[in-house]
Amino acid sequence: MAGRALPAGSAIRDRVVDALFFLLAVGVTALTWVDSAELDVAQGPLVVDLVLGGLSCLGVWLRRRWPVGFAVIAGLVSVYSTSAAGVALIALFTVAAHRSFAVVGAIVAGYVLVPFLTLVVRPDLPSAPWEQIVLGVACVAAVLAWGMLVRTRRQSTRERTRRIESEQELRIAQARQSERNQIAREMHDALAHRLSLLSLHAGALELRPDAVPEDVARAAGVIRDSAYQALEDLREVIGMLRADRAGADDRSDAAPERPQPTLADLPDLITQSQRAGMRVRLDSQVDEPAAAPTAVGRSAYRIVQEGLTNARKHAPDAEVAVSVRGTAGAGLTIEIRNPCPVGAVVATGVPGGGNGLIGLSERAGLAGGRLEHGPTPEGDFRLWAWLPWPR
């Protein structure tokens, strides 16, 4: 206990308990001296007995700092001073409450010898009746049981506190991991879209070196804009990861994050793809896109973005139909269709391992929705998702 900072409430409670124990020790010492005064005991040993008992009462204030030393000294003093018996019981309780059973057993073994040693050093005292001996043994047993009960409860409280702290740390770690997974999904969805535009137009310039200057300038502009946006997305993601690693306290000094895409940004996404040379039709039947919840709008945007990226990779010349409809209470439905390529798939130079659709399924599931994808009997590839839109 030495050197360990305690809460204010615990410190006050400990001081109150020590004061009560001190008053109890003084009371027992006074009662023992009164009983001894009525016996035929020499005045000199009686005074020494009382002085030793009074001094041992002062040790109650040191019992928490040195419980074992206090118990040993109290036991030695009680060999001569019968008025220190109360202090010895308090010392025994302190050891039982703060030390292991092995230490308590050694102290109890020493205390068992105290009555026999008292008969040797204090022949002036009369032999105690058997009723008093039984009462003393019962008191020792009760004090031991009380102290060990207190120790068990303290250990249980500490273990419960450690378990709560461990569970809290686990929840924090899980939250951080969930945040990293979300960042990874955002990185894949955003960068895959930007880089696929880069690859598409760079490939077009490579295949058509004799293109007219206007087409070259348009493609170069798309490449420049896509590269810039990709760098911005990458800078944002790296900033989020650094802030997560540095801790929540350091995030106040970080640069503000860019606004996340919402349902109202879908037309701009379609326009970017059209400028890149894709044939995309948007059928939006959402009266107020800005009224959609932020999480729903962001998930819808990422689903459409990934659907366009997949269409660009696997069917670069096909027309893509994007349909978005929904209202509050009924949910938001997203459907992306494009004809499946016939024969060999045209190589676009854009790598892909199917992780995008897996990430979209996880994103839809986390939002409380569902996602389906695959070929249709009509020969189209269909990406369909439903997201909840609460009222």
TrEMBL record:
Region (Disordered): 245-269
GO cellular component terms listed in the entry, alphabetical order: membrane
MF GO annotations: ATP binding; phosphorelay sensor kinase activity; protein dimerization activity
Residue intervals passing through the bilayer: 16-34, 68-93, 100-121, 133-150
Sorted UniProt keywords: ATP-binding, Kinase, Membrane, Nucleotide-binding, Phosphoprotein, Transferase, Transmembrane, Transmembrane helix, Two-component regulatory system
Bias type Basic and acidic residues, positions: 245-256
Catalysed reactions, as listed in the record: ATP + protein L-histidine = ADP + protein N-phospho-L-histidine
Gene3D superfamilies, alphabetized: 1.20.5.1930, Histidine kinase-like ATPase, C-terminal domain
Xref: InterPro entries: HATPase_C_sf, Sensor_HK_TwoCompSys, Sig_transdc_His_kin_sub3_dim/P
EC number: 2.7.13.3
Keyword NAD in annotation: no
Pfam family, one: HisKA_3
All residue ranges annotated as the Signal transduction histidine kinase subgroup 3 dimerisation and phosphoacceptor domain in the record: 179-243
Protein name: histidine kinase
Source organism (scientific name): Acrocarpospora phusangensis
